[in-house]
Write a structure and sequence with these properties.
The protein is an alpha+beta fold. It has 15 helices and eight strands. It has a four-stranded antiparallel sheet, with no helix packed on it. The protein has a two-stranded antiparallel ribbon with strand order 1-2. A two-stranded antiparallel sheet has the order 7-8. The longest helix is centred in the C-terminal third of the chain and has 21 residues. It is flat. The protein starts with a helix and ends in a 6-residue tail after the last helix.
């Protein structure tokens, strides 16, 4: 009945023409609202297709000749939502509109919406309290990624004063653009200002934090890093962030490892299997000598400190596996 109503609505004479490109932009905007677009605007087809098939049901899609293989990367749904090069049957537009919970009336009302920008239009403000251009909207570039936990967009803003901060979006109001989620780099102007404030013994940690826009704990920890910081320059040809310098520790604890010298050694599973089989016998004998009623697999794994290995790599340990089956069947009279 819903498909019939949608089909009748498509024939309504009051709707003006809408081209494929504009219709696709509307679809993408609605897909972004339900989390089916990546931060860069790509469609999450691996998630979209199963949801789409589950909503309509395979039987209905098959009757309408609209069923497709989940592993196929060139279905009619792909062709409809990618750059418009093909005409698509109206019934298939009805199916995608039903999935998006939208009709032609809503589509025509929101003409030329496009994919929404989660952080608005630039430029964006520098939120470095240590510089004179604090809160001035001078940042032109932003790098948008996707939070792996919440799937929400995360923007990283880099200023020419070396201050880099990020926040999770989308922005809900005009004041959100002046919010910092995390400071990724302070930069030399900020660190130099901290040095100046630390010379004034009359200022508390809380007051210094207020002046620099951080909490007192950050003020307490940063002086330990002041003497170890050097300056490096980002790649000037980078298109993701503006050319700037960022402070990095000269003597970092995590030194770059030589790729050949520190390669992880390959595990000799055959030798490990023989060793663990002997250890299983030893542990099982010890358990019996202590008078336990039975020998459990979990107890052996715990005493060997190999519970995870036994649970996940037992297929590579055939001798150990056979020995475990033997000893865990032990039942003293």
């Amino acid at each position: 009945m819903l498909i019939a109503k949608q089909g009748s609505d498509l024939l309504h004479p009051n709707y003006s023409c809408i081209d494929f490109k504009e219709l696709r932009e509307k679809y993408l905007a609605l897909l972004a609202n339900i989390g089916m677009l990546t931060a860069k605007g790509s469609i999450r087809f691996r998630e979209l297709i199963p949801h789409f098939v589950h909503l309509h049901g395979r039987n209905l899609l098959e009757k309408l000749e609209c069923l497709f293989d989940n592993n196929n990367q060139d279905t009619w749904l792909h062709k409809m939502l990618r750059k418009p090069r093909h005409a698509t049957h109206p019934i298939r537009h009805i199916l995608i509109q039903m999935y998006l919970n939208v009709g032609m009336a809503n589509i025509c009302k929101g003409r030329k919406m496009g994919v929404p920008d989660p952080f608005g239009k630039g430029p964006w403000p520098c939120l470095n309290k240590a510089v004179d251009h604090y809160r001035e909207q001078i940042i032109d570039n932003v790098v948008i990624t996707r939070c792996t936990d919440t799937r929400k967009p995360v923007a990283t803003f880099s200023c020419s004063c070396e201050f880099i901060y990020s926040r999770r979006g989308p922005d809900l109001n005009a004041t959100d653009k002046f919010r910092i989620g995390r400071i990724k780099h302070f930069g030399s102007p900020w660190m130099n200002r901290l040095k100046e404030l630390n010379k004034d013994d009359s200022l508390s940690l809380r007051e210094k934090g207020r002046l620099l826009g951080v909490d007192p704990g950050t003020i307490r920890n940063q002086p330990q890093k002041l003497e170890t910081f050097g300056v490096i320059t980002l790649d000037k040809d980078s298109t993701s962030t503006p050319s700037t310098t960022i402070e990095q520790p000269i003597h970092s604890r995590k030194r770059r490892r030589d790729s050949n010298k520190h390669k992880p050694k390959r595990v000799n599973w055959s030798e490990r299997d023989k060793f663990l089989a002997q250890e299983v016998d030893r542990i099982a004998e010890d358990i019996k000598n202590r008078g336990y009623r039975f020998i459990s697999l979990s107890e052996i794994g715990r005493l060997l400190n190999r519970s995870t290995m036994i649970g996940t790599k037992i297929g590579k340990l055939p001798i150990t596996s056979a020995r475990l089956m033997q000893v865990t069947e032990y039942r003293p009279m």
